[in-house]
Amino acid sequence: xxxxxxxxxxxxxxxxxxxxxxxxxxxxxxxxxxxxxxxxxxxxxxxxxxxxxxxxxxxxxxxxxxxxxxxxxxxxxxxxxxxxxxxxxxxxxxxxxxxxxxxxxxxxxxxxxxxxxxxxxxxxxxxxxxxxxxxxxxxxxxxxxxxxxxxxxxxxxxxxxxxxxxxxxxxxxxxxxxxxxxxxxxxx
Length: 188
Prior knowledge:
By secondary structure, the chain is α+β, with helices and mostly antiparallel strands. It is built from 5 helices and 9 strands, in the order H-H-E-E-E-E-H-E-E-E-E-H-E-H. The chain has helices spanning 3-10, 22-40, 97-104, 145-148, 170-182; strands spanning 44-47, 57-60, 72-80, 90-96, 112-118, 128-130, 133-135, 139-144, 157-163. The chain is globular and about 50 Å long. This is DUF4365 domain-containing protein.
């Protein structure tokens, strides 16, 4: 499809001021947000060329724990400005059946997690900088794919719940690494 036709099919509301689709900006912003948290916690990121396996990035620690040296986990990232998805005790997210099954498959070698970044709705900026630093009202909620697993029938979508207590911070990221790193061999 020619670029002009694609742009017309998307509609003007789907493009940001710089003519980049909003969904692409959200995707990049969620990866950047995650990178900042991971790097500040002393972890590193392994990018994926595609998210065919149901994950976007792998976060890696270089620390040694009781069970493993250098624990890591895969992370599927989502991004939304829909504040209505934030409930009293959880962030709800409606996943398509196929990516949900990929993320929660039992035979994963590396543990997997889902992270949903909630960003401000326009016109509030996603990010603000001044001489005092960098500020965003964005926040990410996470959950282990093991805790999201659902063995019942799924037609097109499955709604998952990410506890509000699972706020993606450096401290919580290191807690995830400790849980994975302290696991006994074969139990991760």
